[in-house]
Amino acid sequence: MDIKHLSHAILLIEGHMSLPDTYINQYIKQIITAHNGDEVYLKKIDNNTYYDLISINCYKETLKKEQVSAILEKFSYQASEAIGLKFYIIKGIENSTKEAINSILKSLEEPLPGTYAILTTQNINKVISTITSRCQQIIIHSDYAQVAQLCTDYKLTEQEGSTITKIYWNIQEAISDLEDGNFKECYNLAMDILNFGNDLFKIKKTCDQFKKLEFHQIGLILKIINLFKKNIEISKMYDQLKLHTSKLLIFNHLLIQMQKKVN
User: Are the CB atoms for 26 and 6 separated by under 8 Å?
Assistant: First the structure.
């Protein structure tokens, strides 16, 4: 990495199938090195044990003012790490409430001593200009060679590999769901839903599994189904998902849509 100016606030623009977490890790370590930090701190970054680092993933849940306030309150106190550097990472800054954005703007305009903000976005057009103007913007380029390696490492079929590139924006999101089994579970359930037809036993079994899922997993299933059945009404189910509506209600809506295609 060759960055001439280590800004107190950067905005990473994620390319499709890029590796933003790798870049973030390297960027933070470069800041530590610039402040004469020793190997102990670099290892803490690699091991996710650096105490004065907070990371929020807004691709899974909308950022709220309370979360920003909690970060700023914690970082208003003396740093726990002796080097005195503090970092907060907000992934998916575009998925924030207006109140949260206003709180972030204040921190960007008047940064706390030794505090660095690292924001990411998958759609720069959705990030308001008052945020972009206060951050150094850096584009993280695509890395499709890593996608091919991912398919090999996790023994993905050609169809599964193709699905990965269409439902995830960056590689690390895909890796996370592959490591904990989310992708495989959601992919298999999506295939069951697409193919259960009028088999009541299979519908009941799938429904029982569906109700045990996290909302993030349900979102994956909807994305996968939408790839193979583009003419079903997915948007309403996404709205229900954002409101954390009853999982059974979402499943019933999905079932109705699928039965329309069968009958």
Answer: no
